[in-house]
Amino acid sequence: MNNKDLLQIAEDFDNPIYVYDSEKIISQYKRLAKAFKQVKNLKINYAVKALSNINILKLLNNYGSGLDTVSIQEVQLGLEAGVSADKIIFTPNGVSIQEIEEAVKLGVQINIDNLAILEQFGSKHPEIPVCIRINPHVMAGGNTNISVGHIDSKFGISIHQMPHLLRIVENTGMNINGIHMHTGSDILDIEVFLYASEILFDAAKNFKALEFLDFGSGFKVPYHENDIETNIEELGEKLSKRFNDFCKSYGKELTLAFEPGKFLVSESGYFLVKVNSVKQTTSTVFAQVNSGFNHLIRPMLYGTQHEVVNISHPNKNKRFYSVVGYICETDTFASNKRIAEITEGDILAFKNAGAYCYSMASNYNSRFRPAEVLWHNKQAHLIRKRETFEDLIANQVKIDLR
To answer: Which residues does the record list as N6-(pyridoxal phosphate)lysine (modified residue) (predicted)?
Structure first.
């Protein structure tokens, strides 16, 4: 996509607005598949939580992707998008046994990360295939909020609890068909990832009827020019060889599974906003825009540094700005960043807005959530309408307070 296309979308569909380039999503999917071409059976399950619009799910399904889901609602979205149940894995955390049983009724692969739930489920449904989520206690990823493999994490069954886990499996006669791990997001050091993988391989030796090993994801994408990212090609070469060797020693061709979310959709996304005003204070020049952390919370929550481009006047001389929103709290998208000179009415584009942007949006300050547009086959397609006041009050119940 180019600036002209983005500006036209901002005009035709109003703004703020999320825009996704399907060509980038497809190219990322193919890149990951190519990196692991030496593996006979590869399964890529897109992590729905990153961007859950059903059109994105349909697009990836067309290219063979399965889905990684963390709620019963995400399972239902996947089915609504036409993804078959056997291509969906349900990997919740902290949900009730009732929600897991609801997912069973829908026919998806179950992934359990809690010994108590595992025992309950195995005692009641020993015949249903179950994947087990292991916590390898390997710290990988960037911000502590998205590093999930450490000793104090709420995710997964500790690798140190393997004797207890095996006792539950033996006592219930459960059918364990997969082992899973996820260490965190924004992984840079593939050697750390490979080390965690060895723990998964070692754990897998305890189970004789496995069908797949799921290595999670968390691959880092570049947020600006010359930014570092996970070397997928090197990881593919090294992990593929190790996986193939393991399959030989295991005596069976297993499936290697991944669950990328951000890696597939982040770089496809642009969040377009309009500059309401430029405010000069004694120390800072603020570009105040018609959005806030209700639409893009990641900079405030995780400290992410989204590149900001003035697509209305990209060639003007660059000046330093702090880009801030309209929420009545500290609401900063970017601090003291060099951006092409900004004037009132300019359209700014936040890059890397495909993952965890709309999906984490809210109605805070009673603001409407924006529309979503998919740029597909060189055309803009509206894939979610902008909310209205009627949407805001649709589920509120007015009572008589006289």
So the answer is: 49
Cα–Cα distance measured from residue 190 to residue 324, given in angstroms and rounded to the nearest whole number: 35
Q: What are the tokens at 330?
A: 């500290």
Q: pLDDT for 371-386, tens place per residue?
A: 999 999 999 999 999 9
Q: Is 247 a catalytic residue?
A: no
List Cβ neighbours of 328 (8 Å cut-off, separation of 6 or more). 365
Which of 99, 194, 180 shows the shortest CA–CA distance to 138?
A: 194
| Whole-angstrom distance, CA of residue 380 vs CA of residue 20 | 9
Domains and CATH numbers, the chain: 22-264 (3.20.20.10), 266-393 (2.40.37.10)
Give me the catalytic one of 131, 247, 328, 357: 328
Q: Give the tokens for residue 152.
A: 């104090």
Question: Any idea which residue has 């994801």 for tokens?
Answer: 217
Query: What tens digit of pLDDT does each residue of 1-53 get?
Result: 899 999 999 999 999 999 999 999 999 999 999 999 999 999 999 999 999 99
Angle between helices 115-124 and 97-105 (to 10 degrees): 50
Pick out the residues of the known binding site: 218, 298, 302, 329, 356
Kindly state the tokens that stand for 123.
């005692």
Binding residues for substrate: 298, 302, 329, 356
